[in-house]
Amino acid sequence: MSEVTYSFNAYDSGGEVWDTNPANMVDGSEDTYASTWWDTDIVQLCTGNTCAGTNLGTISKVEIRSLNWGSQIGISCTYRPVFGGISDGDDNTQIMQPPAVQAWGDYIDITSNTNAPGTWDWDDVDNLDLDVQVTTGSFKTVYMCKIEIRVTYETLAGGATGSMTPRSNYWGDL
To answer: Cα 72 to chain center, whole Å?
Structure first.
């Protein structure tokens, strides 16, 4: 099995965005961050990622994680995959890192979420969007730097990409 990692790189500018520096959540940097003051109505919709849809092999698992922290201990955030740009998946909740500790959260497996593709292909990864929503009450701030997508897959025979077409062993008149 092989793994490849992509990151979200676009968001719903002017639509569903966090309060402060929403572009920093998807700029690919681990040094800049978006933030929001707790309000369960605030969602940032990440609308694109760095996967180009190139077929690397048969997908067996798709996971997400983020580089984050909260202003207090116990703050949680919900990640809701949006499949094909239209179908919401399950709410996947994760506790944010403690105050002043920027760190990666654990990977969350979204392979079999509600409305996920029955069999994932690389266009499904390319077309994956994500809602990011603070879910803990009591006026706290959440900071998020980057969100990754990790895909586990079985490499195509011979390491080739695309479809495999049988070739003739015709040698002609030797």
So the answer is: 25
Rounded to whole angstroms, the Cα distance separating 161 from 56 reads: 5
Residue 125 host element (H or E): helix 122-126
Q: Domain spans of the chain?
A: 2-157
C-alpha span between 24 and 6 (Å, rounded): 16
pLDDT digits (tens, 9 = 90+) for 124-158: 999 999 999 887 656 678 889 999 999 999 997 76
pTM metric for this prediction: 0.84
The phi-psi region of residue 100 (left if phi > 0; otherwise alpha if psi is between -120 and 50; otherwise beta) is left
pLDDT attached to residue 159: 55
Q: At residue 104, what are phi and psi to the nearest 5 degrees? A: -75, 135
Q: How long, in residues, is the chain?
A: 174
Phi, psi of 62 (to 5 degrees): -130, 125
Chain center to CA of 12: 15
40-90: pLDDT as tens digits:
668 899 999 999 999 999 999 999 999 988 887 778 888 999 998 889 999
Fold for the domain defined by 2-157: Jelly Rolls (2.60.120)
Bridging pattern class, strands 87-88 and 34-37: unpaired
Amino acid letter at 103?
Answer: A
User: What is the distance between the alpha carbons of residues 74 and 102, in angstroms, rounded to a whole number?
Assistant: 15
